[in-house]
Design goal:
16 strands; about 290 residues
């Protein structure tokens, strides 16, 4: 067995198959591009590309991606103790999305820091508390670094083992965040019934199963929606969209089963008065007529 290889290389950073742009080329999602402070994530010919050489490994793209598609980058490892993130703190402050995961996965409720030396972290905690206050979650506080923390920071830079602190990371991605905060939504799925033909395309391309259509109901589950935009991109009638909203809920619209008088096939309709399925309504010359 080979323990070492001269050809071993770290995986190349990029957007994997789960990227919504790889599934639907017309999807305009660029969540990772918008949060990249180093400016190394770009859209080239409709695909996400990451210039690895300039990447600072801050992890912001990991926590912004609605599909968890970023590959080759690991979440930042941070030190914590007694419910607080501790020094050494990263030069680039974490995103609110990352801090939310620390809040729920490690029950972190504050940061030990010298406020004058870490303005980025100060702003990040302030933005986090605005979000937490809206949702009724406990707020974070700032604490001056203890002597143990300062000594631990020195041991870190000197690469001396420190047993007084734990280190770890949190799960990135919109899907993990939705599972961790089901009581709070991030997006509302908006449907225009006058335009919708109930073709079912939106439900088939939703990676989170936030949309479900049956012969009795059309369900829009905002608790699962990560805002990827697949439904909005694929909808032929432009009848569905996604908006930011932390107070959206489960919406169930009534539908009914029907049989098309042209092709004789069953279909889902808004009312029993509809006689032709969505496909036959688009065919002017009854191409599917039985």
């Amino acid at each position: 067995m080979k323990l070492f290889s001269l050809d071993a290389r770290p995986p190349e950073a990029g957007a994997g198959r789960a990227c919504v742009r790889n599934q639907l080329p017309l999807n305009p999602c660029q969540a990772c591009v918008d949060v990249c402070g180093a400016g190394v994530i770009k859209v080239n010919n409709g695909k996400i590309e990451i210039e690895t050489a300039g990447c600072t490994a801050c992890g912001a793209c990991l926590f912004a991606c609605p599909a968890g598609a970023i590959e080759g980058i690991t979440p930042p490892e941070r030190a914590y103790r007694d419910g607080c993130l501790t020094m050494p703190l990263s030069l680039s402050a974490p995103s609110v999305n990352e801090l939310l995961m620390w809040h729920v996965q490690h029950q972190i409720r504050g940061v030990e820091m010298e406020t004058g030396a870490h303005s980025g972290w100060l702003m990040a905690v302030a933005a986090l508390n605005i979000w937490l206050k809206k949702t009724g979650e406990p707020l974070w506080n700032l604490q001056p670094p203890s002597e143990d923390t300062q000594q631990g920071s020195r041991r870190h830079w000197l690469r001396i083992k420190d047993d007084s602190h734990q280190t770890g990371y949190v799960t990135p991605g919109g899907r993990a965040r939705r599972a961790s905060f089901p009581q709070v939504t991030e997006y509302r799925i908006v449907l225009d019934r006058e335009k919708c033909s109930l073709c079912g395309a939106c439900a088939r391309v939703c990676p989170e199963s936030a949309i479900h259509i049956s012969n009795t109901s059309f369900t829009l589950n905002a608790e699962k929606c990560t805002g990827c935009g697949n439904c909005e991109t694929l909808c032929f009638e432009k009848a569905i969209g996604v908006e930011k909203d932390i107070a959206a809920g489960l919406e169930i619209l009534e539908t009914t089963g029907a049989v098309c008088t042209t092709c004789r096939r069953p279909f889902t309709a808004w009312s029993a008065d509809e006689k032709r399925c969505p496909v036959c309504r688009k065919h002017r010359f009854n191409m599917r007529e039985a």
